[in-house]
UniProtKB/TrEMBL annotation:
GO MF annotation list: transferase activity
PANTHER family per record: NODULATION PROTEIN U
Keyword annotations from UniProtKB, A to Z: Transferase
Originating species: uncultured Nocardioides sp
Domain named Carbamoyltransferase: residues: 2-70, 119-323
Protein name: Carbamoyltransferase
Length: 546
């Protein structure tokens, strides 16, 4: 079967193509449109069809629209109820549901030649679940889905066997761990449904001293679900306005909700494992992007293996809905081959971009060596290589790289990107070197979705990547999967004695991650970056030297 998956409702519009059970391509619309998800006024940020991403996916797979056996849409309006009936305040909900019901018509307009009859609605949390379990390396696995909301629920707990899902529990709205975290994000002055990772970072600066109040209102129900009662945030810490400085009260509130979230997730996972007897857990939904909670699940849930979808947010439902229908129709669904499922350019195409830009560039004998030397000299490198990543993490294809041994490089990179200074940056390390430096979290960890304790002996050697609590969000690199990145890391270690490089996403505040060569050149031109490594070429900042 040829199945095109679409997400276009709440946020993170995306498309994915699955052919005969194999994931061919997947990409978020923001990488094409350059409109960052969550940063546009409601409802427009949510209701953006991924036209450009969908067309590119079809081109990548050499599939004509008329050849599609199904187009899947990761929301089923037939299952939805009004926001008022669900106990939610959402003035746009009636329009959202109307939009979803009309999706076949919208899609056939944006993809000329598409028969609206091939469009299939897939329950939102089933799409999430498939993006977790069916895309994972495991043939059979348990799955937990937690996010803000789907049609009328915020959670699903189940098990996949033989490509078929058995649902063991689901949580009806308005109770939602994702919406709870969104409310806190908004109260702390950040952008709801976009900046939750900032709250996770802030939590490390606090202590959970509001636990009595939060635990009374957020609790499991003993049957695989949970309760989230409204919280009077203002009584715990005053709401932060634009430009206001956060205080210890705000950090303590973030820490309290973070710890309580972890505790509830552990109880839900243990309940599911007791129900199924499974030893492998997969995670999806926006809550699964909480790296700290994922590590506790790995360490304390009782599961032998925990795997998280790298595009765990709503973008991942484009892939999940396509995988679900492919499996339902009898295709042998294969694990996703990696997160590098987006666009790439040939060397000739990149050279054409550089010449069009009339910019000086070089083609060194080995770009990995050139980059390692620049990093060893404390330069900042914009790294643009291969296919772009699916999901929010830069994993060695669209990255900013720097020296981890200089503590000032944390502030330096946050300044380059225009980010808050309490936010950490991540270490990239060869998989076989990681166990000597990092512990507690699972290794290897190729998708940067867990936190790890940094060995005390290494904390002073790589201070820029060590968070205030002594942890780091590690990305491990396999030599076979990422030979160019691996060679750069090896040369950097030869030059510095450090097998670790800082890796953060190649973008600046409010902008989507760089995706094509034009984006890379614009970012390089506007940010204080020493070197752009784009394909086999390098572009030097004028005056930076070699």
């Amino acid at each position: 079967m040829k199945v095109l998956g679409i997400n276009a409702l709440f946020h993170d519009p995306a498309a994915a193509l699955v052919v005969d059970g194999v994931t061919v391509a997947a990409a978020e619309e923001e990488r094409f449109s350059r409109r960052k998800h969550g940063h546009r006024p409601v409802p427009f940020a949510a209701w953006e069809l991924p036209e450009l991403a969908a067309r590119w996916c079809l081109e990548q797979g050499d599939v004509d629209v008329s050849e599609l056996d199904a187009v899947t849409y990761s929301f089923d309006p037939a299952l939805a109820r009004s926001a008022d009936a669900l106990g939610l305040h959402d003035p746009w909900d009636h329009l959202r549901q109307t939009y979803a019901r009309q999706a076949p018509g919208f899609l056939s307009t944006s993809l000329p030649g598409l028969d609206p009859a091939v469009v299939r609605f897939v329950r939102h949390h089933v799409a999430h679940a498939a993006s977790g379990a069916l895309a994972s390396p495991y043939a059979d696995a348990d799955v937990l889905v937690l996010d803000g909301r789907g049609e009328c629920a915020s959670h699903l707990a189940g098990r996949y066997e033989g490509g078929r899902l058995t649902v063991h529990a689901a949580q009806d709205l308005p109770h939602s761990l994702g919406l709870l975290y969104e409310d806190l994000t908004d109260h702390l002055g950040f952008l709801r449904s976009s900046d939750e990772f900032k709250v996770m970072a802030m939590a490390s600066y606090g202590t959970p001293r509001f636990m009595d109040e939060i635990a009374r209102r957020v609790r499991t129900d003993g049957a695989g679900g949970f309760v989230t009662e409204p919280v009077d945030w203002q009584s715990l810490a005053k709401r932060l306005g634009p430009g206001e400085e956060w205080t210890q009260d705000h950090a303590d509130l973030a820490a309290t909700v973070q710890v309580r979230l972890e505790e509830v997730l552990l109880e839900l996972a243990r309940w599911l494992r007791q129900r199924t007897g499974g030893d492998r857990l997969t995670l999806a939904g926006g809550v699964a992007l909480n790296c700290v909670a994922n590590t506790r699940l790995h360490a304390e849930s009782g599961y032998d293996e925990v795997w998280v979808q790298p595009a765990a947010g709503d973008a991942g439902t484009a892939l999940g809905s396509a995988l679900h229908v492919a499996a339902e129709e009898g295709d042998d669904v294969r694990p996703m081959p990696g997160a590098d499922l987006g666009r790439e350019w040939t060397d000739d195409e990149i050279e054409g971009w550089l010449r069009t830009a009339q910019i000086e560039f070089e083609r060194p004998d080995d770009v990995a060596v050139e980059v390692a030397q620049c990093l060893a000299a404390d330069g900042v490198v914009a790294w643009f290589q291969g296919r772009s990543e699916y999901g929010p993490r830069a994993l060695g294809h669209r990255s900013l790289l720097a020296h981890p041994g200089r503590s000032a490089n944390l502030e330096r990179l946050n300044d380059v990107k225009g980010r808050e200074q309490f936010r950490p940056v991540a270490p990239m390390v060869l998989a076989d070197r990681a166990p000597t430096i990092f512990s507690r979290g699972p290794l290897p960890s190729p998708y940067m979705l867990f936190v790890h304790d940094v060995d005390p002996a290494w904390r002073q050697r790589i201070p820029a990547v060590v968070h205030v609590d002594g942890t780091a969000r590690v990305q491990t690199v396999d030599r076979e999967d990422e030979p160019l990145v691996a060679r750069m890391l090896e040369v950097f270690e030869q030059l510095t004695g450090l097998p670790v490089v800082i890796n953060t996403s190649l973008n600046t505040a409010g902008r989507p991650m760089v995706d094509d060569p034009r984006d890379a050149l614009e970012c390089f031109g506007s940010a204080p970056v020493t070197l752009l490594a784009i394909g086999p070429f390098v572009v030097r900042r004028r005056g930076a030297g070699r």
